[in-house]
């Protein structure tokens, strides 16, 4: 506080991302013949969930393929880790993703 009893006010927001919002991707009309990414976090239960969900959806939808991505860093965006290129390559090769977070 300065001598005139005035406070300086700071914004709680960080710098804005210069990339414009893209909005929600359109829903897939069918899973048949699609490649579905299974993104599992570092927690143990997510590994079992990925295995189980992968087995169920490949049985249910003919021609469906799954691709597993194993995130090993805690509390970090994958694009801000050393795995950024690996993650981006994985994401480019899938039609949709399922995020698995275990306990």
Biggest sheet, spatial arrangement of strands: 2-1-3
Number of helices: 2
Low-confidence runs: none
CA gyration radius, whole angstroms: 20 Å
Helix percentage range: 25-40%
Mean pLDDT: 86
What is the string of helix and strand elements? Answer: EHEHE
Count of DSSP strands: 3
Q: Kindly name the structural category.
A: alpha/beta
- Report the β-strand fraction as a percent range: 15-25%
Backbone shape: elongated
Question: How is the biggest beta sheet arranged?
Answer: 3 strands, parallel
User: What is the terminal-to-terminal distance?
Assistant: 46 Å
Task: Summarize the structure in words.
- The protein is α/β, with parallel strands linked by helices.
- It has a domain at 45-72 and 83-103.
- The protein is 25% helix and 17% strand.
- It has helices at 44-60, 84-92; strands at 35-40, 65-70, 96-100.
- A 3-stranded parallel beta sheet has the order 2-1-3, sandwiched between helices.
- The longest helix has 17 residues, at 44-60.
- The N and C termini lie far apart (46 Å).
Quick summary of this structure?
The protein has 103 residues and is α/β, with parallel strands linked by helices. It has helices spanning 44-60, 84-92, and strands at 35-40, 65-70, 96-100.
